[in-house]
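thread: overnight batch results

M.L. [08:02]
morning all. the overnight job finished for the chain we discussed friday. pasting input first so we're all looking at the same thing
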Amino acid sequence: MRIAVPAETDPAEARVAATPETVKKLIALGASVAIESGAGNKSSFPNRDYAAAGANIVPDAVAALADADIILRVRRPEASHLGGAKKGALLLAILDPYGHIDALQDIAATGVDAFAMELMPRITRAQVMDVLSSQANLAGYRAVVDAAAEYGRAVPMMMTAAGTVPAAKAFIMGVGVAGLQAIATARRLGAIVTATDVRPATKEQVESLGAKFIAVEDEEFKQAETAGGYAKEMSAAYQEKQLALTASHIAKQDIVITTALIPGRPAPKLVTEAMIASMRPGSIIVDLAAERGGNTALTRPGEKFTTDNGVTILGYLNVAGRLAATASSLYARNLLALVDTFVDKPNKVLAVNWDDEVVKATLLTKDGALVHPNFQKPV
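M.L. [08:03]
and the structure it wrote out:
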């Protein structure tokens, strides 16, 4: 069993799909591991650390892919970057399948069996494989750190001989994994934290972290969560009521962090131009939904932007990747956990159970075809 870890081809991607820690564990499963030279440099994992863990350092991606049974990557590769991969090799990566059916079909045509890590089902045994949670957790932390770095004032309340410095007010919009980590981090920094979400179950979570929950708590609000744990799209009437509440609250905030995303859909617009115009000069908005268009009306994906009234909006992409070493460590463990389920331990050989619910949920391509029912071209 041979595992390949090619370097990421996107120059903006600093993460890597294996670390020296996971290389040792992959080898313990019976695999040999080939790492493309320099694959871990941006994540502070040099070649020598991989070599010390037992990996073979190879000069390029072609050498890494040659005869590989499993290919580990962070992002979806172009089909051309899979040249030399053998038919039936397993590709594990964050494949961003929504709206990219042509790219998925191109990957299928190479003959690799591709698994989309972000489609991992929300079941207990798959939690250790859940890349969305591992990366969102870091994004929520980094969002607060970025906001504090841009904010031109101290975040905690300070009692000084020259007078009292008031604590910053932080408002977290969307209380999933990223939002909860943002609340906890902002609280640790000493901010006065409020948060909102349309899912009623989050109220107790918010309050348990010492923040105040802000929402229109009517009958629709009580039914506002899907079986999968995601927020439902709310009615126009509810959205109007929530907008009015948000507008009055946001005008008093110093830091706003938006985290609302529904998989496969454009990011919902939570913060209007009028709301931004009502904020004080020097206020900061961090939009963690920038990759899907953003939660604010003025977000510029990939950019830091300051409005005419002095509000700075951070629309950074791949926020978890701004903590490349930690993000890589967690992501590599997610991959390791999935690979572990593919291995026949007594014989140390690859033995995928194609009827496993984890496999069925994440498998996109097999035997040269795009097989996932949710990602088919309309007839």
